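Researcher: Next sequence.
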Amino acid sequence: MTYRPHAVTIDDHAVAHLVEFCRKNALDKLFLVADANTYDAQGHAVEKALRAAGLDLKQIVFTNKEVIADAAHVFDVLIAAGAEPRTYIAVGSGTLTDITRFASHRTRSQFISVPTAPSVDGFASIGAPLIVHGVKVTVICQAPLAIFADSNTLCHAPQSMIAAGFADMLGKLTSVADWRIGRLLWDEPYDEAIARRTLDAVQICIDNADGIGAGEPAGIARLLDALLESGYCMLDFGSSRPASGAEHHYSHYWEMMLLREGRPAILHGAKVGVATVMVAEIYDRVRQLSRAQLSDLLEAAVWPARADEVAQIEAAYGDLAGDVIAEHKAFLDLNPAEADALKRKILAHWDEIQAIAAQVPPAAVVADLLCRVGGPATAAELGFDENERALAAANGHYLRNRFTVRKLVKVLGL
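Model: Next structure:
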């Protein structure tokens, strides 16, 4: 049986539930991780209640303007936590949860999640997306021991973070489609039941888009439920594959680019939402291709030379290219016979690919949904120019050994 958090609550009594859980489970040595914003939103109340209960609490509250899930912040957490065993408590959203997830796992400790915004789907998952030597990688760690979310805090989260959580869920529209294509063309492990659960969670968000955009308690609760369900799907499958396709690869590229250039970070979900519109545009194009057009494209397409691909990766990723090339090895090392076999596979499965593409809403529909909750729908709204938009589309797919619709159109020469 797959591990699940021992307790999950979403109501107005999150702090009381947390204290009761710690007492009941003899968790008397604790370590709180927060930043200045999340400490004000929920961390102070958590600290006050735990200390009033007589529990041994240490903490770190990051005061720097931008907290990143990287080695420096993980190291700060480990230093502040000390050597004695403690149960970690992540008070925050995605980045703080990922830092805490990794640090607690590597110290053989458990952690509790106290979300302060419904902004990501990673609360209940086992993966910790980290920046390692400038490259975005997902490290498999652990799910939280418990999750206690205060509905009032969630409803009063910044609208941009609520919209980011909604956008992160919309990204599953393309990630599941990419996953299904990956099963057909790249023999990737796949689970239809998990794919269906993921899409059902997305539909809950779509059905409640207006309430989520308005910050209504019922809508926000359903959004967090969906985000948690997406995390459970990753937990059950054992990787992020159900929830991460080409749209996440674009987002990761932009994140790494911003870090390299010393520019301010952009919310993960906001980037994913815009990228989902871009990937949906590719699915729009795939739906329009007839079998005859496909056959002509496959016949004319020339598999890129390894040296050319390496040169493009080096141009796009600079000093980080070595790690990216290593991740992309399975594609770089395809020989002509294997490339031809892949083309034949695409032609053989074209009806199935078209059926998958038909399940992805048109890009205009995705963009409209993002606008309804107050989120960005274009790269320009994120502050990216047309060249930066194109760079993500051209180079994001190199980051993972996964077959996505972006890989498909590259094979077709589109």
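Model: The radius of gyration is 22 Å. The mean pLDDT is 95.
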